[in-house]
Amino acid sequence: MKSKNGIDKPNQLSRAVARGLRRAARRARETARRYGMPIYIWKDGKIVAVKP
Question: Residues 16-31: pLDDT tens digits?
Fold first, then answer.
């Protein structure tokens, strides 16, 4: 039986969340590229601005 959100197992929920996070990251990179803005990432223990 499926739950209210249409996902029936916790494993499927984690997959859906991971897929959504990857899609959001891709859109954020596209938007940053479009407007010439940097993306901030964690690298070597520091937060750095990277041009996409």
Answer: 999 999 999 999 999 9
